[in-house]
Amino acid sequence: EVQLEESGGGLVQPGGSLRLSCVASGFPFSNYAMSWVRQAPGKEREFVASISRLSRSTYILDSVKGRFTVSRDDAKNTVYLQMNSLKPEDTAVYSCAKSRDHTWSLGPRTYDYWGQGTQVTVSS
To answer: What backbone phi and psi angles, to 5 degrees, belong to 30?
Structure first.
């Protein structure tokens, strides 16, 4: 059974940092691209960051470039999202997703499993 479990969310002040983790199980993690998506209340889901197999390629949403980085540790079956200089507009539920392929894409149908998500709230 494929499982994706996110952690690391919480309440942080503007300008603060959080590191999200997504621990995967039930499939050969190193073979697949992974992504982070977020959804804020009343807004559409958007892809925030993606990382391909062997970390050969990454994608970062324009609005978070220079502030967010994505990485993976295949030995730990974990993908990370380091978020720095957080802004109130980053408030959302952040989820990880498993790609059907070794490369990332921004099409939701190319992902077959999604985690439950972790809440990130940026507020003073």
So the answer is: -65, -20
